[in-house]
Design goal:
Elements lengths: L1 H11 L11 E8 L13 E8 L13 E5 L6 H7 L2 H12 L4 E5 L19 H16 L9 E6 L1 H12 L6 E5 L11 H7 L4 H5 L3 H13 L14 E2 L2 E2 L1 H9 L2 H4 L4 H5 L3 E7 L5 H13 L5 E5 L7 H16 L6
Parallel strand pairs: 3-4, 3-5, 5-6, 6-9, 9-10
Antiparallel strand pairs: 1-2, 2-4, 7-8
Length: 335
C-alpha cells in the first residue's frame, strides 16, 4: 500500500510514475527439423508462446529457469493460453512465490487434433521436436539457465501424458515433472465391434466424427503408423472386425504405466514429480493407477485427488499448485 500511496502523491504533483513491470507474452514460430516430411502434412513450423517475467527486459544479465507446458487433445497452444488465462495465472504465481521463470507453450495440434507427443512418420516426430528442437531453440534465443536442473515439464490431459512420457525418456533434458489430469496412461484396448465402426472411414467422416473415432485415428497415427496405407497412413486396431493384436501391442507399448518399469531410474533421477486428478474426472482411474505404479517402484512423487472434473479447476490449480511446484523445485540463479 505504501508504494501505491507514493505513486498517487507523485501523480498529484504532476510527475509521471512508471507502472510496475509486468510479464510479457511473445508469439513466435519455431522450425522443427524433426517434423519435416511427415505423411499427414503437419507443418514443421510451429507456433510457440513464450512468457517472460517482469524483470526480463531490465535485468539484462539475469538468466531464468524454464517451464515447458504441453496442451491437451483437440486444443491448441492458443487455447491453453486463453483458458487460465495463463499470463494472468503466471504473474500471480510469480508474485506469490517471489520467483521468476520463463514459460514456453508449443502448439502440437495435428491433422488428427493431437500428436500424443510421440515420434511417428505419419504425425511427425513431436517427441523429438519438444525435447530437442524446441529446447535448443529456446536456449539459443532466450536467457535461460540451460541445464536440466532448471527445466521443468508440465501439461494437461494429453499434455499430462506427454509430460510423463517425455520425462521418462529424456531425463537428461528435464528434472521436474507435473502432470495435470493426464490421460491415456493405461494400455488402450479395442473390441472388434468398436473397431468395425472405424474401419473404412473417409477423411471427411473422421474430421466430422465423434470423439471416439477421432481419438482412434489420432492414436493410430501416433503409435501404429503405416506409410503404405494412404490416406491416413495408419494401422487400425482391427481388420474386418477382428482385433489386430500387434497393433494393440504397439499402443500398449506407448502407455506410461506399461513403460514405467523400463524407466524407473530415469524417474528416480527427477528432482520432483507431481500428478493430480479430479474426483469426477473421466481419467481418474488411469491417474490413480499411475500413482499406484509409482508407489510400487518406490518413486517419490506428489499425488492429489482434488474436488473437480477434467478441467473446471485448471486455472486455479495452474496458479496455486503447478507453477509454485516449479518455483520450489527448479534451480534458479544462485541456487
Amino acid at each position: 500500500m505504501l508504494v501505491g500511496r507514493i505513486a498517487v502523491m507523485f501523480a498529484g504533483m504532476g510527475l509521471l510514475v512508471a507502472a510496475p513491470a509486468s510479464a510479457r507474452v511473445e508469439k513466435i514460430a519455431v522450425h522443427g527439423p524433426s517434423l519435416e516430411g511427415n505423411l499427414e502434412g503437419n507443418s514443421a513450423d510451429r507456433i510457440v508462446y513464450v512468457l517472460v517475467p517482469p524483470s526480463y527486459d531490465t535485468a539484462k544479465a539475469r538468466r531464468y529457469p524454464v517451464v515447458y507446458f504441453l496442451h491437451g487433445y483437440q486444443t491448441k497452444a492458443e487455447g491453453i493460453m486463453g483458458w487460465g488465462p495463463m499470463e494472468q495465472r503466471y504473474e500471480a504465481a510469480m508474485k506469490a512465490t517471489g520467483r521468476e521463470w520463463i514459460v514456453v507453450v508449443p502448439d502440437s495440434f495435428t491433422k488428427q487434433s493431437g500428436s500424443m507427443y510421440s515420434d511417428s512418420v505419419t504425425v511427425g516426430n513431436f517427441e523429438t521436436f519438444t525435447a530437442h528442437d524446441l529446447v535448443a531453440y529456446i536456449d539459443s534465443h532466450y536467457r535461460t539457465i540451460a541445464k536440466r536442473e532448471s527445466r521443468g515439464l508440465a501439461g494437461h490431459s494429453m499434455g499430462g501424458y506427454g509430460t510423463l512420457r517425455l520425462g521418462m525418456k529424456h531425463p537428461d533434458v528435464f528434472s521436474a515433472l507435473y502432470a495435470m489430469d493426464p490421460c491415456c496412461l493405461r494400455p488402450r484396448g479395442i473390441t472388434g465391434e468398436e473397431g468395425r465402426k472405424y474401419e473404412g472411414a473417409t477423411p471427411e467422416q473422421v474430421d466430422k466424427g465423434d470423439f471416439g473415432i477421432r481419438t482412434n485415428y489420432a492414436v493410430a497415427a501416433a503409435w501404429s503408423p503405416d506409410p503404405n496405407k494412404p490416406p491416413f497412413f495408419v494401422d487400425l486396431g482391427t481388420n474386418d472386425g477382428k482385433v489386430d493384436d500387434l497393433v494393440v501391442a504397439k499402443w500398449a507399448a506407448n502407455a506410461p504405466i506399461a513403460m514405467l518399469p523400463q524407466y524407473v531410474l530415469a524417474l528416480k533421477s527427477m528432482t520432483a514429480i507431481g500428478l493430480d486428478t479430479g474426483d469426477k474426472d473421466f481419467v481418474r482411474a488411469d491417474d490413480e493407477a499411475m500413482h499406484a505404479e509409482l508407489q510400487r517402484f518406490h518413486i517419490a512423487h506428489d499425488f492429489e485427488l482434488f474436488e473437480g472434473d477434467h478441467g473446471n479447476r485448471f486455472p486455479e490449480r495452474l496458479e496455486k499448485v503447478t507453477f509454485p511446484f516449479f518455483a520450489k523445485h527448479l534451480a534458479f540463479e544462485g541456487k
